[in-house]
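Please fill in the sequence for the structure shown.

STRUCTURE ENCODING:
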């Protein structure tokens, strides 16, 4: 099973919009960086939301192994 992508998790949970994800992915493509940090920098999510969903992402990865 593929690693769940943070942007997809945030989108499916309603934390960000597709437009916010697209903008962050464009920045990532052009400038590099981690999607979570880009979303925080853009003001789409808070650091607390980032930490919450990074933990959820890690939980999904470990439970799928």
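FILLED IN BY: designer on duty
SEQUENCE:
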């Amino acid at each position: 099973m593929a690693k769940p992508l943070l942007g997809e998790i945030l989108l499916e949970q309603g934390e960000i919009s597709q437009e916010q994800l697209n903008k962050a992915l464009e920045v990532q493509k052009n400038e590099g960086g981690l999607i979570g940090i880009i979303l925080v920098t853009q003001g789409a999510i808070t650091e607390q939301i980032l930490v919450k969903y990074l933990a959820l992402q890690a939980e999904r990865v470990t439970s799928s192994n």
